[in-house]
Amino acid sequence: MQNQFADIDYWKGIVLYGLNQATYKIALGKTLIDLTNNGKSTLDWHELSKAFLDNYIARLNQSDMPQQSNPSRQTTMERIVSGIKSGQLSYQQAVSEVGVNAFNDVIPRFQTIGTDKQLAAGKFYHYDFGKQIHIHDALFNILETSKHEIIQELEARWSLLEGAFSLTHGECTLANSIREIYLEKATVRSNLTGNIPFLQGYQGNVCFYCGEGIEKASIHVDHLIPRQVIQHDEIWNLVISHDVCNLHKSDALVGKHYFEKLVARNENIMGSNHPWKQKIASALGSTSAARYNSMYRHYEHAKIILRSRYWEHAPNYNRETDPFFKKLITKLNNS
After folding, report:
1. Residue 74, number of CB atoms within 10 A of its CB
2. pLDDT (tens digit, 9 = 90+) per residue, 168-218?
């Protein structure tokens, strides 16, 4: 298949479909744009460290929003900026620490789209770790044609990630109480691959989330309502998806349109003679109304526990109607 991606498509794929557990990828993208805006093609490590630090200082001076999803930890950059503010680190010491400790993951992994390390590998730079980054023409091309758009997109993505992370950092009595109910009935996580043939029978070889075909090697079994909430592997909550869709969705909520799609899938099973329909009836109820109400109660509980932390941070997000992702997954399926 002929590659129809433009340079800007690769950049958007990296920024929009990264598996972001922290804001580092967005900060590095902004830093690269800042430093290459004047046409410079080789960036010294110290220069990169300084600009990366300056971006975080400016960001954290605006607010103290969390920079990663784990509420029990700070990122290296948060600790470094805190060290400057408290007087434990001088600015120059902080720059040096950034160069040594902040780039170990983000520079090697920045040019990854979803879980695919090859699709955009080396597209925008190559590097001599600890010494230099060498910028490629593709980055200059998107700066020339789409600079304003990509800067706005980076800023928006950074804010969206901070907002999502902040939802996981607070305490909520009701959420904790509901979570305890599920934990009391929790089951040990089981190997889900044995469910693939059954799920394929009612879903076909297509991804539940984007509707595109799935290669056998890329099939994941996913819990539509995140397992960290539901605490079981009952069949009514399982779907098959692309590995990249599953990993990108992670433990986020999906919009109600996906919930309704799951209801329809389960009712399709209930209309068959498959013996597993008894498992669904036992878990959810003997009538369609009872099953819907039971599923909806779980879905509403997930919204309380996860505090409306939606996939792509939008309750109406639907990967089946996302034209950019459909082009991306077509490329992934044929690469």
Report:
1. 14
2. 555 446 666 777 778 888 888 888 998 899 898 888 889 999 999 888 888
Q: 226 and 252: one domain?
A: yes
CA distances from 242 to 14, 207, 222, 260 (A): 18, 6, 9, 20
Provide CB contacts within 8 A for 51, sequence distance 6+: 31, 34, 35
Contact 112, 120 (CB under 8 A): yes
d(CA 153, CA 150) in angstroms, rounded, equals: 5
Block residue for tokens 């509420």? 71
Residue pair 319/260 in contact by the 8 Å Cβ criterion: no
Q: Distance between CA 120 and CA 128 in Å, rounded?
A: 18
Tokens of 146: 């789409």
Among 169, 197, 224, the domain-final residue is: 169
pTM score over 0.90: no
Cα torsion 114, 214, 271, 276 to 10°: value is -80
